[in-house]
Amino acid sequence: MSSQVVSPNTEAAILARIILADEQTEERQLTPDAARYLLSMRLPSGDEDRVNELSAKARVGSLTEADSQELDSYLHIGSLLAVIQSKARRLLQHDPSSQQ
């Protein structure tokens, strides 16, 4: 994964704030149904193929600047999804009303 620090105003960071809201003020609670939906989210296969292609180019040192930026975008979104899904898993593990 990229070792770059994600700016607080990248598209991924802004989207994370929208989805997760502010946990301290509990402006919006993540519901069990929403948590299950978030856990079902995956990168479409065409995008997975593109990430694999860009990663292969990175391994051999043939990424262009545009390729590098594109790969960083995928990595930032992957990190965002991982954080959101982690929060969703925690909710489902700790919320007795979320058990099916």
* Share of residues in strands: under 5%
Helix and strand string, N-terminal first? HHHH
Low-confidence segments, given as residue ranges, are: none
Q: Main β-sheet, in a few words?
A: none
Instruction: Please give the oligomerization state of what you see.
Output: single chain
Rg from Cα: 16 Å
N- to C-terminal separation? 35 Å
Number of helices: 4
Number of domains as seen in the coordinates: 1
Helix content, binned percent? 55-70%
How many strand segments? 0
Mean pLDDT value: 83
Shape: elongated
The secondary-structure class comes to: mainly alpha
Sum this structure up briefly.
The chain is mainly alpha-helical and 100 residues long.
What does this entry look like structurally?
The chain is mainly α. It has one domain (11-98). The chain is 65% helix and 0% strand. It contains four helices and no strands. α2 (32-40) runs antiparallel to α4 and α3 crosses α4 (65-94). The radius of gyration is 16 Å and the shape is elongated. The model has no long low-confidence stretch (mean pLDDT 83).
